Amino acid sequence: MNNNLEQFQNIIGYKFKDINLLKKAFTHSSYANEKYYNNERLEFLGDAVLELVISDFIYKNYPHMPEGELTKLRAGTVCEGSLAERAREIGISDFIMLGKGEETTGGRYRESILADAFEAVIGAVYLDGGIEPARAHILRQLENTVGK
To answer: In the annotation, is 80 catalytic?
Structure first.
């Protein structure tokens, strides 16, 4: 596990005013047994912000696409596999805090944990800076995956 959160902020191009939000985003519920918080609520919020931003992006950039196709395009972009892949590319697995059991069973590289942490980071950016920094973060991370 990498505790250098300054390094991660450089990777994503966003500097947190409240670093505790980023710490919480990386705290898996298995680790939280030893702490009082985890990333699940941030993941919930990040998922909603992610859907909104990607929906807005797709709506504006694919003006002739019918609703059903827009939905498929969004689903392919925000699915667990896509988010986990991007999480691996930016090294989220190095920063996740896991409990011992989850660590020994390979949780650090499990798609669901990576995707959840990716969404939790989005939630943390949103709470820390608002919708525009969250939009910029999401599009920096995912703009090139839309439609692939």
So the answer is: no
